[in-house]
């Protein structure tokens, strides 16, 4: 490559790099470009992803705040029932709505700084990010679903209506106009706001692929969405119940000859928390200038049929804010969950339409949201259920075959150990159907660090390491399990990742040489010399020792066929002197033999310098004869490899 004119690269929305063409090079400018709104941000960065999560939660809060405006309307029941607006609750809800809209304004400002995916780059490839600040601002402003949609959903329409329009309509006793206005606000801004939240989530997923990324977040979001839907249904039910009470009051007044009923209280906006209940002259308590003594319209057992609004009568006249909010939410949850089975509407057309809407909404939400929750729970419990079924089948098989309790305990221990380590998933089985290049990259990512922990592979090329990573497979062994016995054919070379393994080699006259293999060690090194032997022999070498697990052990193995393939194709690397010395240095066979040689040399040195270490004459002969016997015994276990 030309080091004097190295190409510049820019990141795409996927995992590739695209060269920058026709752009003036400025060596002093290495960071992301800046614009009038600040430095351009990468939508895949951790900062932007954390902000997206927080912003989506804020939009969920905004969806939950808007229905609270409905509960600002209330019915006073001190004298004759009348309608008023609870100014304290309306003020609190207004502040909450303004706060969540302020968060949305921050998001709107941030969109002028976040790079976007160019549509033209999606024709071929996975998309390229546009980093030019002017292009980002122009694209955001010109998009109808961008700046203008973001600005539309935060228009202070409910605040303006409740503080400017509703008090005047209450004073003019235009109850039907009030309810119609509130429902139009719901259709005009709230439903687009729901679509806006869904659209934002989809738009964020185009770049990063995910937002929250865990099953439990998906479970929680679906549950929150179902709760908000119940909250909205309860709010509409509350408002329509107030309209039915107003209709009842008007009908009673029309039946009476002397009726001077006023549907509005003495004060249209009443701050209930400033006036205790029962205070004389309470403007929130009701009207006293009426001939109606008993509020029959607030009596559940009265002559007026309320239909589905029957249980809302104690709520709309309650002075408790918590009762006003919680009971409609409970009604919405119960009604949506039962698909409106308990609804008994009257023949009033608006009530029938609302009941139909509740039934259809409950069916849709149950199908979508509760169905998604069931999928999430099934994904969480599927592995555990799979483990339980496997253990049950294994227990049935062991009882049928009448295995002894010792073997049964070993099987149970191994299954628990494998579940704790692997999580009930076979990783190699999951990725076996992927394309070869993708599978190789995944296995390199998973296994490269483990392979590099093996000293034997420290100085190998990346190409050889890629081939090793592509062919290794994870292995799990429980405590006290024998990995391989002495004399058995060596089927694979294994590299210890976690745990300790005991090596036992039988010597003559019942003597046993033992050693401990720590993480980073390996066993089955007889295969390495077997693969490099010329002429090649098809018969697998025999294990020179028995290997058993001192504790639960994790390892990865390389089968004999795969090891032979690697050594044949990269023989230039496996035949050098440095690798031969490394293999002998870390080989448990050579280490045991070296320890014996050192002990023998030490004995000879002691005999030359300090005399014999044992009595000169014994019943079996002289000490010199015994030393020769030991030497013959120790030298007989010298490992035989074909690395020379």
TrEMBL record:
Coiled coil: none annotated. Pfam families: Ion_trans (PF00520). Residues 456-535 form the Cyclic nucleotide-binding domain. One of its GO terms (cellular component) is membrane. The chain crosses the membrane at residues 54-76, 88-110, 147-165, 177-195, 215-240, 321-340, 352-380. The keyword DNA damage does not apply. Keywords: Ion channel, Ion transport, Ligand-gated ion channel, Membrane, Transmembrane, Transmembrane helix, Transport. It is found in: Membrane. GO terms for molecular function: monoatomic ion channel activity. It is a multi-pass membrane protein. Residues 1-41 are annotated as: Disordered. Belongs to the cyclic nucleotide-gated cation channel (TC 1.A.1.5) family. PANTHER family: CYCLIC NUCLEOTIDE-GATED ION CHANNEL 15-RELATED-RELATED, CYCLIC NUCLEOTIDE-GATED ION CHANNEL 2. This is Cyclic nucleotide-gated ion channel 2. It comes from Quercus suber. The gene is CNGC2_1.
């Amino acid at each position: 490559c030309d080091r004097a004119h190295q190409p510049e690269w820019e990141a795409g929305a996927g995992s590739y790099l695209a060269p920058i063409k026709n752009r003036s090079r400025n060596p002093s400018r290495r960071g992301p470009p800046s614009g009038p709104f600040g430095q351009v941000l990468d939508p895949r960065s951790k900062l932007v992803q954390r902000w997206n999560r927080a912003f989506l939660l804020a939009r969920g809060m905004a969806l939950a705040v808007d229905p609270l405006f409905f509960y600002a309307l209330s019915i006073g029941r001190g004298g004759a029932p009348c309608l008023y607006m609870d100014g304290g609750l309306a003020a609190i809800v207004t502040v909450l709505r303004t706060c969540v809209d302020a968060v949305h304004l921050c998001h709107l400002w941030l969109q002028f700084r976040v790079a976007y995916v160019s549509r033209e780059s999606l024709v071929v490839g996975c998309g390229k990010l546009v980093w030019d600040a002017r292009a980002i601002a122009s694209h955001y402003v010109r998009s109808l679903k961008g700046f203008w949609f973001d600005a539309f959903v935060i228009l202070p329409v409910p605040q303006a209506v409740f503080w400017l329009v509703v008090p005047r309509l209450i004073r003019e006793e235009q109850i039907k106009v009030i309810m119609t206005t509130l429902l139009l606000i719901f259709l005009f801004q709230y439903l687009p706001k729901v679509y806006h939240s869904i659209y934002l989530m989809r738009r964020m997923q185009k770049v990063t692929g995910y937002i929250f990324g865990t099953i439990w977040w998906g479970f929680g979001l679906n549950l929150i969405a179902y709760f908000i839907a119940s909250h909205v249904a309860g709010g509409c039910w509350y408002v329509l119940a107030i309209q039915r009470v107003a209709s009842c009051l008007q009908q009673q007044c029309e039946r009476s000859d002397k009726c001077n009923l006023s549907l509005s209280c003495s004060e249209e906006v009443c701050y209930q928390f400033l006036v205790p209940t029962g205070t004389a002259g309470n403007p929130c308590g009701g009207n006293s200038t009426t001939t109606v003594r008993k509020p029959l319209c607030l009596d559940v057992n009265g002559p007026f049929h309320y239909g589905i609004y029957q249980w809302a009568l104690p709520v709309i006249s309650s002075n408790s804010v918590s009762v006003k909010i919680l009971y409609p939410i409970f009604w919405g949850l119960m009604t949506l969950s039962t698909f409106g089975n308990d609804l008994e509407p009257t023949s009033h057309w608006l009530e029938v339409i609302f009941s139909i809407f509740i039934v259809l909404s409950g069916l849709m939400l149950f199908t979508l949201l509760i169905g998604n929750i069931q999928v999430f729970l099934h994904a969480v419990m599927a592995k555990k259920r799979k483990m339980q079924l496997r253990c049950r089948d294994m227990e049935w098989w062991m009882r049928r075959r009448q295995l002894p309790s010792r073997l049964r305990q070993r099987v149970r221990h191994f299954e628990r150990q494998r579940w704790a380590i692997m999580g009930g998933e076979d990783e190699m089985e999951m990725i076996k159907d992927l394309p070869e290049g993708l599978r190789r990259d995944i296995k390199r990512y998973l296994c490269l660090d483990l392979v590099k922990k093996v000293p034997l592979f420290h100085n190998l090329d990346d190409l050889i390491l890629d081939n090793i990573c592509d062919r290794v497979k994870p292995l799990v062994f429980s405590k006290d399990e024998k990995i391989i016995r002495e004399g058995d054919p060596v089927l694979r070379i294994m590299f210890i990742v976690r745990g300790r393994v005991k090596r036992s080699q039988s010597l003559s006259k019942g003597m046993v040489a033992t050693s401990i293999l720590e993480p980073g060690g390996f066993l089955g090194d007889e295969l390495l010399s077997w693969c490099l032997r010329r002429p090649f022999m098809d018969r697998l070498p025999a294990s020179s020792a028995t290997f058993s697990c001192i504790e639960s052990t994790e390892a990865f193995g390389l089968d004999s066929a795969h090891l032979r393939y690697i050594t044949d194709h990269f023989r230039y690397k496996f035949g050098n002197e440095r690798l031969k010395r490394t293999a002998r240095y870390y080989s448990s066979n050579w280490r045991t033999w070296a320890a014996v040689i050192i002990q023998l040399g030490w004995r000879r040195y002691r005999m030359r310098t300090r005399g014999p270490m044992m009595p000169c004459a014994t019943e079996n002969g002289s000490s010199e004869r015994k030393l020769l016997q030991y030497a013959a015994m120790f030298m007989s276990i010298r490992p035989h490899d074909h690395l020379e």
